[in-house]
Amino acid sequence: MLHLFAETAQSVIEYISIVIIMAGVASAIFRGLRLLAQSRSPEGVARDAWIQLRLSFEDTLMLGLQFLMAADIIG
Description:
The chain is 91% helix and 0% strand. By secondary structure, it is mainly α.
């Protein structure tokens, strides 16, 4: 019974991590395209926006990877 619960929990957590990573990728693409469209801004502002975009995407990837790691530990 516990083995079945662990397998189910592992699968659910893996799916959650996939959703988190896909949402992060979609958000980063959307925000990146929006930054490209607004490229008329001064260089410093655009550079800071790109850095913030990258950091936000890295945070999302780290969260997704933490969920994957939790799924592996349960498995």
